[in-house]
Design brief:
The protein is mostly helical. The protein has six helices and no strands. Helix 1 runs antiparallel to helix 2, helix 3 packs parallel to helix 5 and helix 4 packs antiparallel against helix 5.
């Protein structure tokens, strides 16, 4: 492949076909890489959470972010802040693992804020099967309050002056059961 030209999909849109490592970093063409998540997959919420947790546990938060992004783009409007917040937490963990403390902390806090917005929304208008309140079941089994706290806590640790890049698998949050 000519590296001076941009990869295109069948409709002519830019699409980077370079292989990627477990943290989503592009590798040289022809290098072995981690299989990428297919884009635009519509999954049931349970399947989204299960697949994202599998990827997080494997130390692949960038790939988990792509799973959450599909849910964010294809799901009901009432759920967008939930999936967007989870996607931002996953990409924040990705940046923290890559050694980008500033970007990692920023995205972890942004994800935590989106989850807080989702919680506030569910307190005022609660769609079937959801709650952001401490007394009811979490949204699709995801404890959004605990995950928001995890994101803020990790953000503080990664931007400490002596902080090293984090181990993505070791820091992977528990989506069900909350936090780490």
């Amino acid at each position: 492949m000519d590296e001076t030209r941009r990869d295109r999909d069948t409709e002519g849109r830019a699409h980077n076909a370079r292989p990627r490592d477990g943290l989503g970093r592009p590798l040289p063409y022809g290098s072995p890489g981690v299989e990428r998540q297919p884009e635009g997959v519509v999954r049931a919420p349970e399947e989204t959470v299960r697949e994202a947790q599998r990827l997080l546990d494997a130390g692949m938060p960038f790939h988990a972010h792509e799973v959450f992004e599909d849910a964010w783009k294809s799901g009901p409007v009432a759920e967008r802040e939930l999936w967007r917040g989870l996607a931002q937490l996953a990409v924040g963990l990705t940046h923290a693992a890559r050694g980008n403390a500033t970007g990692g902390a920023r995205l972890l806090r942004r994800g935590a804020a989106a989850l807080t917005e989702f919680t506030e929304f569910t307190q005022s208008v609660e769609p079937a099967g959801f709650t952001g309140r401490g007394g009811g079941p979490p949204a699709h089994g995801v404890d959004v309050g605990a995950l928001a706290g995890w994101g803020r806590e990790l953000a503080g640790r990664v931007e400490a002056p002596d902080a090293e890049p984090v181990d993505a698998a070791a820091e992977a949050p528990r989506l069900r059961g909350g936090g780490r």
